[in-house]
Amino acid sequence: MSGWRAHTGMATALDIENVDTDQLIPARFMSTPRAKGYGRFLLYDLRFESDGVPRQEFPLNRHPHVSILVARRNFGSGSSREAAVYALSDFGIRAVIAPSFGDIFAANCINNGLLPAEVGEDAGAGLIHTLGDGQAQLTLNIDTRTITVGDRSIAFTLSEAAARKLINGWDDVDLTEHHRPAIAAYRARRATLQPWAFPAGDTAE
Amino acid sequence: MTTLLDRLWDAHEIVRSDEGRSLLWVDRHLVHEGSHHAFAKLSARGAPVAEPGLTFGVADHYAPTRGPAASPDIARMIETLEKNAAEHGVTCFGLNDPRQGIVHVIGPEQGLTLPGLLITCGDSHTSTHGAFGALAFGIGATEVAHVLATQTVWQTRPKSMRITVTGQLMPGVGAKDLALAWIAKLGAGGAQGHAIEYAGAVVRGLSMEGRMTLCNLSIEGGARFGMVAPDETTFAYVEERPFAPEGHALDRAKAHWATLRSDADAVFDRDVTIDAAEIAPIVTWGTSPEDALPVTAKVPSPKGADAGRVAATLDYMGLVPGRALTDVQIDQVFIGSCTNARIEDLRAAAAVLAGRRAKVPGLVSPGSQQVKAQAEAEGLDRIFTKAGLDWVGAGCSMCVAMNGDSVSPGKRCASTTNRNFRGRQGRGARTHLMSPAMVAAAAVTGHLTDVRPLLDGRDAA
Ligand code: SF4
């Protein structure tokens, strides 16, 4: 995965609170292999009628080429399904701006190069107001943690660890390889001091 | 000064990065059908499972509850899990294994879940296992692949939060009501970024089943972790489980487990107290677990800052503002899920249903094959079927509607599950969350109902 520092793209508003991961991708689509693409499943039951006809008024149907989504509080709450991030990512979304995110969802975003930009409740509401049911160009900068819209600049929060991962595009497994000796030493110590921590019948040695 | 969270965290930390992330050792890793993405990532790297002996698989999300798999896609999901497990030498509780059931039911049941362990699973309700005083949390597919490859996980230490429950629960009120009550109070994102430790006399008085229900629902209030310090109740549950330590190892374990608690002077980032006496049986009316009210209340009216959301929610749910919640007619019931399908939950529902008929159809899906066998030994299955409900196999079933068990569009279901999200139980489904006893009461009357009068002269189990 390649890292990134800044992104300029079109944004639209999804003026809904508590957009949970069941809505981001309904469970019935989750047996699909990733290679087949998840973009078409994004927010499926909100985007499409039950007969599959797109709901014209839905923001992502009006503005299918946006790469930034602005939403309300508690975005991505619920299930740990990483498929919710695959759906966003495969649709072309690079960043979601909201006042708060589900913890597991936010971690999944970072692992897939998607930025969960946390803004104040008022700043988020202001941005949603600015966008209305239209779209506008935004620039997000991870180094400075700022969102630029026109001549306005809004601050967002992101932990240093998350920022570094996004910028470097690291895969944690590569990083962890360097710690193999420490992991082996930990395991040996645990097996000696807390043998009960290994399932009965399994050899802790 | 140390919290239980810090004790467990420090005991599992292998290294800490300069930006503050911890590399943690994983004692148990549980996988299910949904872990196919992670196994695919692993094979893309050509990596083996680092610790097959600490990894356990189970078929639950797609497990059929009646007859064969509902579609070839569903059958393929289960086969893929069994194939991945076999390829990597991982023990798997497949459909024909008597140990099969919902991952958060069978972990404790098999003694895989123990105090002091760090447990991960690609499922947000992994917080359930925290009921044993374990550090247990849900992870995404990339993290599952990382655990498979290294038996470790990178995490930033969450903030600490204590929810102390004082007083005494009223009859007919249990762990599910307690959980929904705090989520309604703090909001569905109220505990984001925090690990919750549940404390106080009421929590001490809960059975392991009750503690699991409470910890299970932590994620519905935004917390990835929920836990209860272990005590004699915990030890008694764990002993003699198949994978639990025995003899000398058990003695050593117990000596260690007894130290797993927060110091009396420990300071939490957030401290919340709830009076149990104020909690009535609760039902949800909306599409977020925070939309919860005592069953004696009325459907809320859209007003104030939240008016737009409430109006949209009531529209989806087909509810009229100002009507009594107990006037809301239901179409069906579901008793099941990792929240409320353990033996104690089934007993509570059966206590209400015994000798009564359900006015609506419904499904009772025990949390595991063992729970099923136990319930049948106690005659609970006959109480359910005599009441007119279907007694089916073990799995996630109608909690997530992945196996084909679903609620039809526009239908209203009283459910013992954990999520009333739009479309969770099927596209257009309307879900009301409540305790097993409350679901049983709704089944008997055909509408949302206060269970308490129905318990008169009965042992509430
Ligand atoms: S029962 Fe429901 S919440 Fe629990 S693991 Fe299964 S799908 Fe998830």
Tell me what you see in this structure.
The complex is a heterodimer of chains A (205) and B (461). In chain A, strand 6 and strand 7 form a beta hairpin. Chain A has nine helices and seven strands, in the order βαααβαβαβαβββααα. The longest helix of chain A is centred in the C-terminal third of the chain and has 14 residues, at 180-193. Chain A has helices spanning 21-24, 44-47, 59-62, 83-91, 103-111, 121-131, 160-168, 172-177, 180-193; strands spanning 6-14, 68-71, 95-98, 115-118, 135-141, 146-149, 152-155. Helix content of chain A is 34%, strand content 18%. By secondary structure, chain B is an alpha/beta fold. In chain B, the strands form five sheets. Chain B has a five-stranded parallel β-sheet with strand order 5-4-3-6-7, covered by helices on one side. In chain B, strand 1 (13-16) and strand 2 form a beta hairpin. In chain B, helix 2 (36-45) packs across helix 5 and helix 12 packs across helix 14. The two termini of chain B are 39 Å apart. The complex binds iron/sulfur cluster. Residues 60-61, 102-104, 123, 125, 337-338, 396, 399-400, 418 of chain B line the site of iron/sulfur cluster (SF4). Iron/sulfur cluster binds next to helix 4 of chain B.
Question: What's this model, at a glance?
Answer:
The complex is a heterodimer of chains A (205) and B (461). Chain A has nine helices and seven strands. Chain A is α/β, with parallel strands linked by helices and 205 residues long.
Beta-strand segment tally of chain A: 7
Spatial order of the strands forming the largest sheet of chain B: 5-4-3-6-7
Query: How large is the share of residues in beta strands of chain A?
Result: 15-25%
User: What order do the strands of the largest sheet of chain A run in, or round the barrel if closed?
Assistant: 4-3-2-1-5-6-7
Largest sheet of chain B: 5 strands, parallel
